[in-house]
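User: I'm putting together notes for a lab meeting next week and I want to include a structural view of one of the chains we've been expressing. I don't have a solved structure, so I'd like a prediction I can at least talk through. The sequence is below, exactly as it appears in our construct file.
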Amino acid sequence: MKKMIAILMLGLIAQVYAEDAAPTAATPAAPECKQPDTISKFASDNQRKVFQRRVKEYSECIKKFVDEQNQLAQAAIGKANAAINEQNAYIKKINESQQEQ
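Assistant: Thanks for the context. Below is the predicted structure for the 101-residue chain, given as structure tokens.
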């Protein structure tokens, strides 16, 4: 039992040092979408159409940014889950080998 605890402690210590050396997650950049200036009263129908087009472009830009960030987040979650699975398999292997002794 002491041997198993010692092995687990060494594994945890190694993990802490590995985390210190691991790259940190990058802070996502802010969206580079330009909000159109708000217009309370349109001088012409053309001005209204231009404003509506710019609002649509802004909304599409934000949606694209959010979609890209969600893809990055899903990739990070996948990597985190894979790391957890790897650790669980490793600990299971240790526990099984200790039970055999």
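A couple of points you could mention at the meeting. The chain has a mean pLDDT of 85. The chain has two helices and no strands.

User: Perfect, that's what I needed.
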